[in-house]
Design brief:
This protein is α/β, with parallel strands linked by helices and 452 residues long. It has 15 helices and 17 strands.
Amino acid sequence: MTRQQPTQEQLHQWDCRHVWHPFTQMAEYEPLVIQKAYGCTLVDLEGREYLDGVSSLWCNVHGHRHPAIDEAIRRQLDQVAHVTSLGLSNPTTIELAARLAEIAPSGLSHVFFSDDGATAVEVALKMAFQYWRQCERPRPEKTQYIALGNAYHGDTLGGVSVGGVERFHAMFRPLLFDVLRLPTPNPYRPPEGVSSEELLDHCLGRLETLLEERHEQIAAMVVEPLVQGAAGMIMHPPGYLRGIRELTREYNVLLIADEVAVGFGRTGRMFACEHEQVAPDLLCLAKGITGGYLPLAATLATDEIHRAFLGDYAEGKTFFHGHTYGGNPLGAAAALATLDIFEHERTLEAIQPKIARLGEHLARIARLPEVGDARQRGLIGAVELVRDKATREPFAWEAKRGIRVCRRALDHGVWIRPLGNVLVIMPPLCVSTSQLDRICEAVEEGIQATAS
């Protein structure tokens, strides 16, 4: 018996009744159901088209339905859809591990696969903790972590512990472990009494003081390199990442680089760490790793960290952590195709004119009365809306200022999603200049049309 296809009305009803959407107030949710997509375009149930201005939450890299990725998944499906990584392996997954080790910052030659960005960070936190108990010169007192204010590292309890977005995480504080928190190096909103010019020295000075006092208890520092995503696309001052790498190395503290959002070309290079020639001890990857097709994540570790987990089974040095779908061959096939496209289409070269074009748009948008700051790193753009441009007073969260602009942009066929009062422009890397123009013009018009 053939099951009858649901109507549009039924899908909308079921979406509201049965699907609990993340980071969404379901009492106010209005369904927008995407039925298909191609390139940078999303198509809803009624055939209306929208430009994907945020890469389906920052993960789509080469566009929807890229033929090379589609074909790679089909080929893999003809072989095997899933093989557990617990005691087994698969050629596609093995090849992906080797490719990641080849292109990653130097020294990161061991790849642990998981499912998403939060799990990649959770793996890194646990690896760092266990490393200090098993390394050549064990330091079991090293149990603490350093993280930044307004950091976001996923929604697992470990990720939330090192995270620092109050609105997301305050509810769960009784469940979390304590973290040593440093101020956010935010050039637009520096700490009180600190100018933007003094920000770099101030923040690195705070870190060095903390390391001097507590390095014997600190296992690792975790950071989103260059750009703090969920905090509102905060762009760190140049030299900050390099500075924390030098200080953590000096004080024998591991550095965990969370490149879940900024990896795979978003900043103009394959990895954000490359901009300041930084090689972390642990590197967390997800989102764009499969081109935005399938859930897959990876935590890359150095030889030194990996060695600390080797020994006889009876010694208990094994990393007793794993995920059912970690290293899934379908995801690995999509990831290999994604890396091939970077090479064959010379993606990193092709996006440079688009980065410049985005900068031109942001410079113009920055002049609007309700725009406090318009910032950019690579093909990541952010527009921060403020009530008062002179004092930088923000709009109240409850005013839904960013949401209103995004709803207006939707009327122009552009889908973007705000971070509070910050409008994020983060299209797939394959976006054309004309599509980029449409996205930025819709943002600009939305700000003007909803101005109070």
